[in-house]
Design brief:
The protein is of the alpha/beta class and 359 residues long. It is built from 12 helices and 13 strands. Helix 7 packs across helix 12.
């Protein structure tokens, strides 16, 4: 009898990747959900006895799904699969009844090991099923002549820079994993829990970028750090918009008793930028199998409005591919916005690097 499996993740790419990691010889009936509300409906309908659950989702996140499952005592064994790898995230989902926690990206071996360790599937059963599958595949192979596959080509770029839904989703999922790694580093260094959003991926004209920067930081004044990065075919810059109202709490978390001087504020700003930008770019590049060379971070402005910061700096005039992330520290008045801005000419190389994830 088939086992009902639910994969609940807001990323279509992540859902596809998760489905691919399930043992091919495991007899399952797989359902999909793009957010927690859809996921709960599937579980209530009896189609999610085993649930692979993301944490950062719109409408209803993974924590809320676990709370409802626990409250209503729904019949579901939950394995959390998330880019949020903070130690406290693991503690929270465990307290809410999650069976296991796996960090993204996952592998087939990880899934198979967890399924065996928790008795969801038997090792001998898998071995027998695998043998049957191999036999079937060998039989099919004998029926098919050797055919050389036609190489896939990247989409032709026209005059307009556009992001297909598939590409946007893939870029958002890569950013989600990198975001989680950066948050985990900040959480461990400061002994805090970092609240994470769903990353936004957009294409901006120069005028739209100005509006996006203004929308990203609603604070009256901000302090901004910029750091360029480049590898073969991909170039851009990372902007950290640090809300000035966050300096007091961040100073306390960093063990700075007084922050009377401009030097101390700049130190707080640069330390935060080095943590978030450095960890994000490392996680991002690892997934794309590229290596970024990073420039020296520089302060674009302190205690200025977004418009003043924009006027004082020469931002690119061409279209920009932008990833927006808002980091907040729970129980502290600390938040900042990280924007990754890729040049228009980076699109072909980004497509090429992401193609193996999309396929």
């Amino acid at each position: 009898m088939s086992v009902s499996v639910l994969i609940c993740d807001d990323s279509n790419l992540a859902r596809k990747q998760m489905a691919k990691t399930l043992p091919p010889y495991w007899d399952v009936d797989v359902s999909f959900a793009a957010n927690g509300v859809e996921g709960i409906d599937v579980i209530r309908a009896g189609k999610g006895s085993i649930v692979f659950l993301d944490l950062n989702m719109p409408v209803m996140d993974g924590y809320q799904v676990l709370e409802i499952i626990q409250k209503e005592q729904l019949n579901a064994l939950v394995i959390v699969v998330s880019g949020d790898i903070q130690a406290e995230a693991l503690q929270r989902v465990t307290a809410l009844g999650a069976l296991a926690f796996i960090k993204k990206p996952v592998t087939s071996q990880q899934i198979e090991t967890i399924l065996i360790n928790y008795g969801i599937i038997e090792k001998d059963e898998l071995a027998q099923a695998a043998a049957r599958l191999m036999s079937q595949q060998a039989a099919e192979k004998r029926k098919i002549d050797l055919i050389q596959s036609i190489p896939e080509t990247l989409p032709t770029l026209g005059n307009e820079l556009e992001l297909s839904p598939e590409f946007r989703d893939a870029l958002q999922e890569v950013a989600n994993v990198a975001m989680g790694q950066a948050a985990d580093l900040l959480a461990r260094l400061l002994d805090v829990f970092v609240l994470l959003p769903v990353p936004n991926v957009n294409v901006f004209e120069a005028s739209e970028l100005t509006m996006a920067l203004s929308a990203a930081s609603e604070q009256a004044t901000i302090s901004t750090v910029c750091q360029g990065f480049i590898c073969s075919g991909i170039a851009g810059e990372a902007l950290l918009l640090f809300h000035d109202s966050s300096f007091d709490d961040m100073a306390k978390l960093m063990g700075i008793s007084e922050r009377d001087s401009n030097f101390q504020e700049k130190e707080i700003l640069m330390d935060t930028a080095n943590i978030l930008i450095g960890a994000f770019l490392q996680g991002f590049s690892q997934q794309l199998n590229v290596s970024f060379s990073q420039g020296h971070p520089s302060v674009l402005g302190q205690h200025s409005t977004v418009q003043e910061m924009i006027n004082a700096n020469n931002f690119r005039k061409q279209k920009t591919i932008a990833i927006e992330i808002n980091y907040q520290i729970e129980h502290h008045d600390v938040q900042c916005d990280l924007l990754l801005l890729f040049t228009e000419k980076s699109l072909p190389s980004l497509l090429n690097s992401l193609s193996y994830l999309i396929d």
